[in-house]
């Protein structure tokens, strides 16, 4: 039975020490409005409870989160990265034409919502049109075509296009048309981005929130604060239009995070886990022999 009540009971049992020392969690659970991740509870101790002590995660930020959750418990956590690569495309599948030579094309990719601060991106682009610039905003991701309809009667000079339910090849084609990409997060729980590495493969200037795993892109991207104002974001977009200072950092990032290097890192991590398992197995066999 995987009911919500059973899940809460399991979490309460496994995280008893953390919950008992954090009254805010108790209050949230009583109000049926508890997002455990807000309190550093990832659920990883559930795996540990069943003897799993070796973990392989997708970013350095995720590794830190898991280690904090496990606290002083004995566990090994290895971090990988999202590889940077371009999908195979036989011919362009999405065409976005520049309507005017001076038109700025800004893109944001992924499911549009408050967590990704899509409304702030829209407002920043709208602000740019008020300074006389021609701006086209591309929003591409699941149900993005429906999402942008709410703005089409209130953004006056800003052209917003929504592309929903795209294939990987179609999404990559859409990314290739933009001048600047904006990938924001209100918070980050260690999740990596598949979009940002591909934008870097394309040599696009990318603006990201300085939070969680997004900080791992280093000098290859332009970071802004999580609570960045609309005015600051608009100015950063303009700066990114002619900023070529990140070209070398982008190329270095793409080279170091290639699929070849990802495979090598994965093999090393799995080998380390296998070596630990082998040592544990030998110890267990030695103990059983003595007994």
Describe it for me?
By secondary structure, this protein is an alpha/beta fold. The protein is built from twelve helices and eight strands. It has helices at 4-14, 16-20, 23-30, 44-49, 60-70, 118-129, 144-147, 168-176, 195-201, 230-241, 247-256, 259-290; strands at 54-57, 76-79, 104-109, 135-140, 159-163, 180-183, 205-209, 222-224. Strands 5-4-3-6-7-8 form a six-stranded parallel sheet, sandwiched between helices. Strands 1-2 form a two-stranded parallel ribbon. Helix 6 (118-129) crosses helix 10 (230-241). The mean pLDDT is 87.
SSE class: alpha/beta
Counted beta strands: 8
The amount of helix comes to 40-55%
Query: Could you give the order of the helices and strands?
Result: HHHHEHEEHEHEHEHEEHHH
Coarse morphology? globular
Radius of gyration: 23 Å
Number of alpha- plus pi-helical segments: 12
The oligomerization state is single chain
User: Could you name the ranges where pLDDT drops below 50 across 5 or more consecutive residues?
Assistant: none
Euclidean distance between termini CA atoms = 39 Å
Report the β-strand fraction as a percent range.
Answer: 5-15%
Q: What kind of sheet is the major sheet?
A: 6 strands, parallel
Spatial order of the strands forming the largest sheet? 5-4-3-6-7-8
User: What integer is the average pLDDT?
Assistant: 87
């Amino acid at each position: 039975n995987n009911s919500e009540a059973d899940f809460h009971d399991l979490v309460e049992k496994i995280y008893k020490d953390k919950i008992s020392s954090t009254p805010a969690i108790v209050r949230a659970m009583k109000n049926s409005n508890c997002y455990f991740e807000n309190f550093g509870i990832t659920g990883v101790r559930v795996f540990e409870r069943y003897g799993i002590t070796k973990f392989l995660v997708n970013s350095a930020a995720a590794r830190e989160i898991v280690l904090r959750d496990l606290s002083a418990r004995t566990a090994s956590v290895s971090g990988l990265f999202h590889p940077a690569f371009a999908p195979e495309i036989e011919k362009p599948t999405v065409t976005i034409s520049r309507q005017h030579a001076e038109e700025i094309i800004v893109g944001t990719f992924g499911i549009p919502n408050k967590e990704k601060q899509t409304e702030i991106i829209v407002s920043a682009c709208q602000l740019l049109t008020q300074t006389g610039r021609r701006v086209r905003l591309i929003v591409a991701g699941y149900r993005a075509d429906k999402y942008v309809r709410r703005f089409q009667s209130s953004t006056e000079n800003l052209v917003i296009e929504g592309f929903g339910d795209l294939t990987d090849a179609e999404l990559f084609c859409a990314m290739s048309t933009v001048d600047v990409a904006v990938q924001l997060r209100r918070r980050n729980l260690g999740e990596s981005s598949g979009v940002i590495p591909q934008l870097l493969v394309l040599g696009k200037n990318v603006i990201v929130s300085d939070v969680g795993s997004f900080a791992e892109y280093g000098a290859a991207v332009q970071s802004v604060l999580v609570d960045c104002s609309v005015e600051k974001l608009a100015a950063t977009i303009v700066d990114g239009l002619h900023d070529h200072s990140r070209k070398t950092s982008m190329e270095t990032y793409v080279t170091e995070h290639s699929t070849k290097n990802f495979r090598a890192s994965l093999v090393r991590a799995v080998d380390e886990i296998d070596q630990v398992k082998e040592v544990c197995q030998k110890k267990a066999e030695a103990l059983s022999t003595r007994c």
